[in-house]
Design a protein that fits this description.
- This protein has a domain at 85-179: 2-Layer Sandwich (Pseudouridine synthase), CATH 3.30.2350.
- Helices cover 14% and strands 34% of the residues.
- It contains four helices and eleven strands, in the order ββαββαβββββαββα.
- Strands 1, 2, 3, 4, 5, 6, 7, 8, 9, 10 and 11 form an eleven-stranded mixed sheet that branches.
- A hairpin with a 3-residue loop joins strand 1 (9-12) and strand 2.
Length: 221
Amino acid sequence: MTSEPIPEILYQDDDLIVVNKPPGLTSESPDSKAESLLGRMSDHFGRQLILYHRLDRMTSGCILFGRTARFNRAIAGLFSEKKIRKEYWAVVEGSWPKGLNRVETRIAPLDGGRWENREDSGKPAVTTFRRLSSAEGRTWLQVLPKTGRTHQIRLHCVHAGCPVVGDALYGPPGTKGSLLLHARKLTFRHPADARTIEVEAPLPDYWDEWIRLQTTVPRPR
């Protein structure tokens, strides 16, 4: 059993759990002995949980687990039919291009855990963006991924010429600091009774410095 504290549980019932994943923790690990969110939560509940989707290691926010296999097929259907709404917040370097509300590329793997945007190969990826505010040469965005490719949001921000702040993998050489990418909200209809479940994850503390700069957008929770 792990002695590490469990992340904040944002929603739970007999079948489903939504957790606020902390940055720096992998969603799962191929090594059963390595620390991961799935392992930590499974230890806490005393059973192997089901991980329905993943976040990058340095990305924080909402992530959905199953406590039982009862709704595995239904949840998989919601994801494949794009009926689970995932909203992110991102802070990017530079001024987001005016009028750029949608980025569509193809994404393919490179060596060393990296991926890249391509025009003629790879899997299609679509993301929509809405500018929330800007300050000190950076832009705060609401981001809605329409597909679920690895590193999709980060790559689409690079495609727009505005890498996510703190992105050491895709940002300028020497980039340091915390990644300002947060899975803020998860919305779906519960397979048991079709009621709408909307879960919002509080921001990590390291966002506080950025939020204090904002004058045009109310301080988020």
